[in-house]
Amino acid sequence: MTQAGKRIVILGAASAIAEATARIWAREGARFILVGREKSRLDAIADHLRLLGAAQAHPLVLDCATADAGAELAAMLKALGGLDVMLLAYGLLGEPKRLETEPAAAAELMQTNFCSAAAWCLAASSILERQRSGVLLVIGSVAGDRGRRSNFVYGASKGGLARLVEGIAHKLAPVGARAVVVKPGFVDTPMTAGVAKKGLLWADPDTIARVIARAAERGGPTVYAPAFWRWIMLAIRHLPAPVFNRLDI
After folding, report:
1. Average pLDDT, the chain
2. Parallel, antiparallel, or unpaired for β 85-88 and 56-61?
3. How far apart are CA 189 and CA 21, in angstroms?
4. Which helix (H) or strand (E) holds 234?
5. Cβ neighbour number for residue 124 with a 10 Å cutoff
6. Residue 33 CB: number of other CB atoms within 10 A?
7. What's the confidence (pLDDT) of residue 245?
């Protein structure tokens, strides 16, 4: 798949990682539908992408967590004339203690991170299967690889989504389309503004964006960002429970 003229839908286009990825594709002349909740932010991003070389950048104000994914994506498909890439980049992080003690907060996070995301993924899967081409890219998290003491509700939502995308990837493979879950580790974004940042494990959005852009062309169904997280999570998944329980993570 060549980058030039690529038809791209980005859900959660105002996220730092999504915007950084869009800049890469814009320089190759891509055509975008940028979906998010804040019109002024989307308009500013669209203007910047056009300056970088995007052939089209159409902002669409929509709450992805409550929208009718099938109907909305069908309308986007008609507007673009096809779908080469759908990047799902929206989600909630949540406050761990609140998620553990307030069922409504946990339900909201699950609806946003898993239920609504699953609806978009399944809608995209149907389109890509009919086209026999294109790629679904979903931003997951290493937090979904193993349940841990901190923020396990968030991790559960991302873990479930990863299993779904992996299944979609295997379904699409025989027809030539693809699905990839990209699993970042710690990323310095507005979403993690309240988290203490230290050490070499933290990445910036541009680093993750380059991984996502490569994943649009090859690899999958699971890609870690940066790649060293694959080996870190391999070790964490295989730690015996008594050892894992003693770790402050």
Report:
1. 93
2. unpaired
3. 14
4. helix 229-238
5. 29
6. 26
7. 82
Residue 58 φ/ψ region, left for φ over 0, alpha for ψ in the -120 to 50 degree band, beta for the rest: beta
Given a contact cutoff of 8 angstroms between Cβ atoms, the answer to whether 212 and 201 are in contact is: no
Query: How much of the chain is helix, strand and coil, in % rounded to 5?
Result: 50, 15, 35
For 182, the enclosing helix (H) or strand (E) is strand 178-184
Out of 56-65, 145-154, 194-203, pick the least confident.
Answer: 194-203
Closest CA to 148 of 243, 77, 61: 243
* Gap between the Cα atoms of 158 and 164, Å rounded: 10
Instruction: Read off the pTM.
Output: 0.92
- Show the tokens assigned to 12: 């959660």
Confidence band of 196 (pLDDT split at 50, 70, 90): low
Q: What percentage of the chain exceeds 70 in pLDDT? A: 94
Residue 49 pairs with which residues in a beta bridge? none
